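Q: Sequence in, structure out?
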Amino acid sequence: MLEPPDSRGPRLLFKRRAKTTTDAIPIHLDLAVENREAEVERLVGLGATVVETKSERIGPVEETWTVMKDPEGNGFCVQ
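A: Exactly. Output:
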């Protein structure tokens, strides 16, 4: 993970994964926000589209995120 030294910007996490098909989203951004539903609605208003919403439970913690695409088809997630 890359983090700005002053903690005032985005963190970038790189994960090694198996090669995916060309129609999969091999590289994308995960955006952590205070209110996922409101941010998804705002982004849709700006032209993004929702692909799907997923949840995963790891022990007592459940994480939910929405997979989206920008108007050019680039994928990203909002969590």
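The chain is about 15% helix and 35% strand.
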